[in-house]
Structures are given as C-alpha cells and as structure tokens.
Amino acid sequence: MIDPVFLLCYVFFSVVLAHCKPDSQPLPRPLILEYPNKEAIEERQEVDLRCTSWRVAVEANNLSPWKTIPLECAEYVKDYMTGRGYSWDSELVAEEAGVYARSVELSGDGKDVWIFDVDETLLSNLPYYAERGFGLELFDKHEFDKWVDKAVAPAIESSRKLYEQIQNLGFKVFLLTGRSENHRSITEVNLLNAGFQNWDKLILRGVDDHGKPATIYKSEKREEMVKEGYRILGNSGDQWSDLLGSSISNRSFKLPNPMYYIP
After folding, report:
1. Which is deepest, 158, 220, 256, 257, by most CB within 10 Å?
2. How many degrees, rounded to 5, is the angle at CA 133 between CA 127 and CA 137?
3. Which sign does the torsion angle of CA 69, 74, 76, 80 carry?
4. Integer distance in angstroms from the first to the last C-alpha of the chain?
C-alpha cells in the first residue's frame, strides 16, 4: 500500500515541475570561484620586495637625494603608511629612545637637552600627503604652507608619549623645525591642540636661514645651543638632516618616513 503522504508529495512536485520553464532553475546556481592569476601574484610580490628594499635604503640613508617615491611603489608606501607597519616602526623608535633616556643621569643644572623635530616627528602630515600620492608628487611649498595654516596636523601618538616621558625625566625640550618663523603662532596652536605642551624652546627658520640645506641650518642651531652651555643628549627626527652635521647629540633616533627626503 502506498503511503498517502508520499503520494501527496509526488503529485505536488509533479505539478510544480510541469509548470516550470525548461530554462528555469529553482535551486541556487553553484558558486563559481575565480582563482587569482599566479603570474599576477608573483609580480605583486616582486614589486613589494623591491619597494621594501627601496624603503630600507631610504631609512639607512643609502640613496642619493630623491624627489619623489618610485611610481611602482605608490601602493606599497600607501599600505605601509596607513597600516600597522608605520605605527609599529614608530613605536619601536619611541621605545628605544625611552630606554636610553631613562639610562641617562642628568646633571640637574637645567642644561640637559632633548631636541625634537616637528613634522613627521611630533606632528603627522599624513592627511596632506594622502591627497598627493603619499610622495608621488613633487613638493609644493605653497600648498604645504596652506596645509600648515590649518593647524590640524594630528600627533604621532608614540612620539607624544615619548615627549611627555622626556619632560618628566627632567630634560629641557627644544623643538627645532624647518618651518618658517612666520608660522610660529600657527605651529604653536597646532602643537598645543595635538597634546604637546610646555616645550622650552621652539626654533624656526629666520630670514637668514632661508635657502640653507636643512643639515646646515640645524647644525648651526645646535652649535648655538652648545655655545650657550647646553648638552644635547638626545635628538629625534624623521630626516637624516635632522640628525647629522655638527654638534650632534649623544644619541639620535630616526623615525620612519618613506614619503619625502630633505637634504
């Protein structure tokens, strides 16, 4: 004897199938996966390796002066600057600087100095460079000055923590920047808004400093500090021109910056 339930189901599906169009598909279509092209993957990996080598050469100061990042490295630099790589590298620099700072025995006479650069050391101009290919475009001083005038550059958080630690340890904090003297007030506003307070000196380019390479300008300012009796025990900057030259500090700490080069 045929089960009545089975018979009912058989009749129902027979009716449904009879009314279906030949090309209809009542069930979902199978998922079709498109596998990545192996050659494209290998090419991307090769580009990333070349760009990693280029970035290491930048940080090691092994490249001749350069004006823009390589075109093929645009995506690589973007991923590095906006991803965890840049943050991790910056944090490591700050941690090592902190270890050194805590090891220093200060004299207590108020003459022990730590120098900080401003741009890409304390303040991040990443929003500005994000609109310019993260270093693909030639530097435009006029456009950059308009960005500076907004006073909205955020703090590099690991540097802000180091800055506070340096102050708490008793160092004098001197800010030595390549910005022009006519940007003093707006730079002060930006620094304060970003959480940097109570610096001891903010040194900017005066009229006589314009046109000087950064290495010479910053060396001259450090020489003036030494003549005034200050001991430069630490220096943090994102460019080698922040750190090299004459009257250099006992220890220097280079922050990563593959977006631009300042001689």
Report:
1. 257
2. 110
3. positive
4. 96
Q: 172-180 and 112-116 as β-strands: parallel, antiparallel, unpaired?
A: parallel
| Reported pTM | 0.84
Tell me the mean pLDDT per 10 residues along the chain, length 263. Answer: 50 48 56 69 86 97 96 97 97 98 97 98 98 97 97 98 98 98 98 98 97 97 98 98 98 98 96
Q: How far is CA 223 from the centre of its chain?
A: 29
Q: Which amino acid is at 262?
A: I
Question: Which amino acid type is present at position 29?
Answer: R
